[in-house]
Amino acid sequence: xxxxxxxxxxxxxxLLMPVSAGANDRESAAVALIDTMINDLKTFLATDTGDTxxxxxxxxxxxxxxxxxxxxxxxxxxQYWRAASSEQRSEYGKLLHDVLCxxxxxxxxxxxxxxxxxxxxxVKGDKFVIVQGTFIDTNGARAPVAVTWRVLTLEDQPPxxxxxxxxxxxxxxxxxxxxVAVIRKNKGDFQALINVMRERLExxxxxxx
Length: 209
Hints:
By secondary structure, the protein is of the alpha+beta class. It has helices at about 5-10, 25-45, 50-65, 70-75, 85-105, 170-185, 190-200; strands spanning about 115-125, 130-135, 145-150, 160-165, 170.
């Protein structure tokens, strides 16, 4: 269920773009968010030893710091968020975070041998800034991939990543569709999705995803 999300998050973690000054400039703030995150990760990659525990801690930190996991969690189940109990919401949010983290760690080696060519930025309404670019495999093993970040830039709040589009495919919308399908298949039972997420977490880190 989470392969596309993991690959996109892994690819996105090599983004490096110039930052222009201006605290009130939403586009600059969105670019600065990505730049700071990537510098964090590049520092880690420079000393990475392949230790799974260290990689997990780093990805956990990146997700918590740079992504709006609360908004992502709510959006990813659509209208069924309202039907979930507070306990179910809390558990699902933690499971989603942990599953994404674990899946990225399993695909961590894809971070290497990638370069990024920055594109433009576009303001979308009063909430989002779109940041575009292209990922290139320096070994030539993979075709270039167009990537778009949707950054949430609310007034008086720090910018956070909300969604990633790979080749014009929204990964969050795709995940929402898959999640809703699971719930509907189980006659609106939100717990069924939680059970699927639990099973996903039980997959050993060395297995593919």
